[in-house]
Amino acid sequence: MVRPKVGEARREAILAAFEACVVRKGFAETTLADVAEAAGQPRPLVRYFIGNRADMVGALIDRLLERGEAHLDALKAMDGGGDLETTLDLLWARVFEDATTNVVTMELWHLSLRDEALRARLAAIYRRMIFEIVGLLAPGGDRLAEVEDRVFASVSMAFGAAFFRHLGLAPPSPERLRALARELLTAARSDAPFQSGVTP
């Protein structure tokens, strides 16, 4: 039997190799042989530590979920965890700024068009992110639906900007885009209605 630390290290190396292959070739073109070569492991060991392709996809989703939870946990642990700028940094500079995670996520979304279980898992990840950010910005507020809408819009903006960046499109002013997200979230924390001071 493999010692747990050695097994975890190999599993992590194989997942990192799988992720790199997906970024380079996409899910459709990545084979178990590609992963084995990238990990520097024999193919049977890849199957032993990770399993089949579906198991690898599931493990990769778990890996992305762990990353997202680590970001959220770090945000909660900070002084003033519901601080607006820190929340914006979470969305714009951490979660959706990592090119590798973005490409893998886009590949997963593409796969989810034909896989209902995968679609449900991905939706749960984003639902949880929105729930956690709402909890940080407006714990116990009576305007919960409005706050959720504003956080949803901010997450959508950050995700959309990351997707467009992958296509080679950039906003004329990334600072102005972030300012719009800040205004949305500022309004979520106060009783003031959202009124954008940013001109189109």
Task: Please provide a written account of the structure.
The protein is an all-alpha fold. The chain folds into 2 domains: 1-51, Arc Repressor Mutant, subunit A (Orthogonal Bundle), CATH 1.10.10; 60-189. The chain has helices at 4-25, 32-39, 43-49, 53-77, 84-95, 99-112, 116-137, 144-167, 174-189. Mean pLDDT is 82; it is low at 192-200.
Find the count of extended strands (DSSP E, 2+ residues).
0
Instruction: Provide mean pLDDT, rounded.
Output: 82
N-to-C span: 63 Å
Shape: elongated
Radius of gyration: 19 Å
| Residue windows where pLDDT falls under 50 for at least 5 positions | 192-200
Brief synopsis:
The chain has helices at 4-25, 32-39, 43-49, 53-77, 84-95, 99-112, 116-137, 144-167, 174-189.
Name the features.
200 residues, mainly alpha, Arc Repressor Mutant, subunit A, 2 domains
Structural topology:
Elements: H1 4-25, H2 32-39, H3 43-49, H4 53-77, H5 84-95, H6 99-112, H7 116-137, H8 144-167, H9 174-189
Helix pairs in contact: 1-2, 1-6, 2-3, 4-5, 4-7, 5-9, 6-7, 7-8, 8-9
